[in-house]
Design goal:
Number of strands: 12
Distance between the termini: 29 Å
Strand content: over 45%
Largest sheet: 8 strands, antiparallel
Number of helices: 2
Mean pLDDT: 86
Radius of gyration: 17 Å
Structural class: mainly beta
Length: about 170
């Protein structure tokens, strides 16, 4: 990830492999700003993985690691289990059956004292349209809901999708 913070370039490397997560954020690509790994990161990235399944690969929601807990109107509570980590989220849908929000209480956020603490985390999705033959949301935000107010730390605009690259290139 390449980003800008206070008008200075920030590089970020984020990896989730074999259900282990780590992150390295550096100012000017040189100076460490934040490095994280461990159980809290693994759980947080399990939430992100589940979020990606819901928002970008809805056909994956037949996965046996997902338990559908309860429904309330146009929302459903789901649990996702991966290698011992169990996370949950409320999935909110509009009248057309499109996922419009994913809300989890299982994601951790970095604190000023260097610790990680759980906060509500959501990803509102919108602007559904056909992208390369798929009906997908083209706009998403990632938001931590802190007691002092919401913090949107990322905005994503999907422009294209490429699928089955490994299969097609064999």
């Amino acid at each position: 990830m390449d980003a800008v913070m206070n008008k200075l370039p920030v590089a970020g490397y984020h990896r989730f492999k074999n259900v282990k997560a780590d992150m390295d954020i550096r100012l000017l690509s040189l100076f460490p700003v934040q490095k994280q790994e461990g159980t809290e990161m693994d759980i947080s990235e399990t939430v992100t993985f589940f979020n990606d399944m819901c928002g970008m690969v809805p056909a994956s929601l037949i996965d046996s690691r997902i338990s559908w807990i309860k429904t309330e109107g146009n929302r459903v509570l789901a649990e996702f289990t991966m290698d011992g980590h169990i996370v949950s989220a409320w999935l909110h849908f509009n009248g057309s059956g499109e996922l419009i929000n994913f809300i989890s209480e299982n994601r951790y956020a970095y604190q000023d004292d260097g610790t990680l603490k759980r906060f509500r985390w959501s990803t509102p999705l919108s602007r559904y349209h056909e992208i390369n033959g798929y009906q997908l949301p083209s706009y998403a935000e990632v938001i931590y809901h802190y007691p002092e107010g919401d913090f949107c730390y990322g905005i994503f605009e999907l422009q294209s999708v490429e699928t089955n690259l490994l299969i097609e290139n064999q």
